Amino acid sequence: MSMLAKYVEITGDRLAELLDEPDEVTELFAEPVVMGTPRTAAGLAAREQMQAEAARRAPQLLAQALARFNPSMRGALETNLKSMGINVEDLQAGKGGEAFLRLLMQRNSVAASLLGGGGAASGAARPANSGSTPQISLDKAWHGIHYLLSGQLDPTPSALGQVIMGGCEIGDDEMGYGPARYFTPAEVANTALELSAPTLEAQMQGRFDPAQMESLGIYPGGWDPSELGWLMDEYRKLRAFFGEASNRGAAVVTCLV
To answer: What is the pLDDT of residue 77?
Structure first.
């Protein structure tokens, strides 16, 4: 099971609309369903086999993922899953894989994330979809970037301590990892300025300590020295995204999916 950070640029007017109708915020993060309707009986059988394998492996993968989280994140995730009818204790005992898989698919999560596995550096971040709306995914790098930006496990009041894990909540917890969060155009401009500070990259690189990050439970775990480049590349993507949004006077909405 993966937790991916996504960001979408919207206009100030669209943000005002979402504040009036917060239930619409989930539409910003909608993705095409990867496993579409097969054209042949063989394709249907293959899909059913893939889903069965994902359901079989889901409990084990969830237990492995939860073990890597720090206690506060683990508790929040367990509470969110319970509110959606998923009993974590059952999953850890090897039960309820099919229900968990259905939940992932309902949240537009890709079942391949269960089957593919992979460590922190296994996948490069990419745009959330191919549409014209400016958006990015930081993939699994989000918590590592937050730690390099702030030096802290959890959000802090500064712009750099808010950009990954902060912002104002909007809507309900429809994604499974907490509500979406937004930044106003003024906050986007300030964040873009902070992300572009001349000395920031050197400060971030100085904070990179795989052993310390592993000890703190920085997601997704399994840190080693080779992953500094991956985190810095994803930070630069985030910096460019906020810079371009600021130039357009735009707002930004983010969430974990």
So the answer is: 73
**In which residue ranges of the chain is pLDDT below 50?**
32-40, 43-44, 106-131
pLDDT score at 65: 64
Q: What are phi and psi of 217, to 5 degrees?
A: 85, 35
Q: Which CATH number fits domain 5-256: 3.90.228.20, 3.20.20.220, 3.40.1760.10, 1.20.1530.20?
A: 3.40.1760.10
Residue whose structure tokens are 């930070």 = 235
CA distances from 38 to 8, 31, 98, 107, 227 (A): 31, 18, 20, 21, 38
- What is the chain written as a DSSP string? ----EEEEEE-HHHHHHHHHSGGGGGGGG----SS---SSHHHHHHHHHHHHHHHHHHHHHHHHHHHHS-HHHHHHHHHHHHHTT--HHHHHTT--HHHHHHHHHHTT--THHHHH---TTSS----SSSSSS-EEEEETTHHHHHHHHHSSSS--SSHHHHTTT-SEEES---SSSS-EEEE-HHHHHHHHHHHT-TTHHHHHHHH--HHHHHHHT-TT----GGGHHHHHHHHHHHHHHHHHHHHTT-EEEEEE-
Distance CA(195)–CA(218), nearest Å, equals 21
